[in-house]
Amino acid sequence: MIQIKDITDCLEKVAPLSWQESYDNSGLIVGNPTMECCGVMVCLDVFESVVQEAIAKGCNLIVSHHPFIFKGIKKLDFESETAKILSLAIKHDIAIYATHTNMDSAATGVSFMLAKALGLENICRLLPSNESDNAYFGLGAIGYLPKQTKAKDFLLRVKQNLDLPAIRYIGDEEKAVEKIAICGGAGAEFLEDAIKNNCDCYLTGDIKYHIFHNTENRIILADIGHFESEQFIKQRIIEIISENFSNFARLFISQEKNRVKYII
């Protein structure tokens, strides 16, 4: 019998909860850790529709990247998304676990998976670290293209590989780029680190207007979307579970899509 905690323990071997940022809420958010696990649904975000999808597929564990509860709850308004998720999960004995900034910092975590999706090589840390554990990577990464290419051609490849409707960027599109810094999710705070490391281009999500303008002529800066830059971690979570439980077949990736839409 595989219990919920057996699944979450194997995830925490790759991304210990001690690695999460101080503001985070990774770990088991809802559920009984000793309950038998009959199926796992993996997603980026937990919505009511994801819980319904888990119910339909016979899963009683949802592993999300983003915690659906970040801060304390003082009341349950059943018109709110959070309360609907809690109510539905409790009624159907579904556990919900989040592996967020701790998985961001894992050596084969969010930024590593993004780097591989973009064809980067010789992947290394973006930020310096005093962590002695080699499995700890930290937020962000630096990688190299196999050969120099024009920024415009590289960004078009990024758009294709990540299936992006658009990319917001600033900088000289004719510039040759090779050394690329990335951070899955929202990583604008690490822009100066990318510049200090003499990177040609920095890719992340949730970049504000004024950050773009303060960056011009210093580095090519591109906003590739929060959801889109983290999408590959779902497959990595499935791989971690499969590697540890080879006979456990009920693993599913949610059919969720980015709720932020574009008109092209």
Can you describe this structure?
With 264 residues, the chain is an alpha/beta fold. The protein is 32% helix and 22% strand. The protein contains ten helices and eleven strands. The protein has helices at 4-14, 48-56, 81-91, 101-104, 110-117, 151-161, 191-196, 209-215, 226-230, 233-244, and strands at 27-30, 40-43, 61-64, 95-98, 121-125, 141-150, 168-170, 176-186, 201-205, 220-223, 251-253. The chain has a six-stranded mixed β-sheet. A five-stranded mixed β-sheet has the order 1-4-3-2-11, with helices on both faces. Helix 8 links the parallel strand 9 (201-205) and strand 10. Helix 1 crosses helix 10 (233-244). The termini are far apart.
Task: Provide a quick synopsis of the model.
This protein is α/β, with parallel strands linked by helices. The chain is built from ten helices and eleven strands. The relative contact order is 0.16.
Brief descriptors of the model:
single chain; 264 residues; alpha/beta; 10 helices; 32% helix
What proportion strand? Answer: 15-25%
**Global structural class:** alpha/beta
Order of strands in the sheet with the most strands?
Answer: 5-6-8-9-10-7
Figure out the total of helices: 10
- Topology pattern, helix = H, strand = E: HEEHEHEHHEEHEEHEHEHHE
Specify the helix fraction band.
Answer: 25-40%
The counted number of beta strands is 11
The main sheet comes to: 6 strands, mixed
Distance between the termini: 49 Å
Rounded mean pLDDT score: 95
- Global Rg: 19 Å
Unreliably modeled segments = none
Shape: globular
